[in-house]
Specification:
The structure is a single chain. By secondary structure, the chain is α/β, with parallel strands linked by helices. α4 links the parallel β1 and β2. The longest helix is centred in the last third of the chain and has 20 residues. It is globular and about 65 Å long. Strands 2-1-3-4-5 form a 5-stranded parallel beta sheet, with helices on both faces.
């Protein structure tokens, strides 16, 4: 299960960190961070394949599940939880599952990642089926929780993907559509919440944003299906309508609140035309 030479555990390019002044610490962290988008860019063909696989499931009524532990699990939950307000989809379309359950979101439950059987138990609680797709998130690519989950999905003919930061990892071996973003050693050796976590966040942004656009949840470049859950979003939607139709602010807002979304207003106007 363990990789003999994990790049994510390799020694930092910097030493004597405790002797650096604040400006040096920030500068060197930033230098390392700037390499992350370059590493992500190299994996765009892999990301493309995974986006298309996710889209093919979701367009036919399936769901996307993220599974992970620690930072990786939290990133999956963040990405999943932002899809409904941003794109107006059901909460059940994209689901994030973290080793150790919801309590692990706020407080580390690191031992929970060592259970190879736990992810499949968690997925079965969600009535997982071969209509769905499961993406494992693991910086090392060796996390037992994620590895066991993908292995069980594989055994049950469920399509899988992964986002990992080592090459040829066990997790990638059980992913139909692996994404392997190699960001190199962390500024603090082994602290994968840093560059690896940033890379994972960038990839997850790309996955769900691209899929939602392909599902028709964006018009032009606007989030026309966003939920009007606070005044900021009501104001954003109002200004979208002002720009589209040259309405006065109050009229645009009245229409927005009447029809419940920017798309609702657009559809109503197009019906009349």
């Amino acid at each position: 299960m363990m990789l003999s030479n994990k790049i994510t555990e390799s020694d930092s390019n910097y030493n004597d960190l405790e002797h650096m002044d604040t400006r040096s610490l920030l500068t060197y962290i930033n230098v390392e961070d700037q390499s992350v988008p370059v590493s992500v860019a190299k994996t765009i063909p892999q990301i493309e394949n995974l986006v298309n696989a996710i889209y093919n499931k979701l367009i036919n009524g399936g769901r996307l599940f993220y599974i992970g532990s620690g930072t990786s699990g939290r990133l999956g939950i963040v990405d999943a939880s932002e899809c409904p307000p941003t794109f107006g989809v059901e909460h059940e379309m994209v689901i994030g599952i973290i080793a150790g359950g919801d309590k692990a979101i706020r407080k580390a439950q690191e031992g929970s990642e060592d259970n190879m059987d736990a992810a499949w138990i968690d997925l079965k609680k969600q009535n997982i089926s071969d209509n769905d797709i499961v993406v494992g998130i693991s910086a090392s690519g060796t996390t037992p929780y994620v590895l066991g989950g993908l292995k069980d999905c594989h055994a049950n003919s469920i399509i899988t993907g992964c986002v990992v930061c080592n090459l040829e990892s066990p997790v990638a071996g059980f992913a139909n559509f692996p994404v392997e973003v190699v960001v190199g050693p962390e500024f603090v050796t082994g602290s994968t919440r840093m560059k690896a976590g940033t890379a994972q966040k960038l990839v997850l942004n790309m996955l769900t944003t691209s899929v939602m656009i392909k599902l028709g949840r964006v018009k032009g470049n606007k989030m026309v299906d966003m939920m009007l859950s606070n005044q900021k979003l009501v104001d954003r939607g109002t200004r979208m309508l002002m720009n589209l139709y040259k309405y006065e602010y109050n009229h645009a807002q009245d229409l927005l609140l009447k029809y419940g979304s920017v798309r609702g207003v657009i559809d109503e106007i197009e019906k009349k035309d």
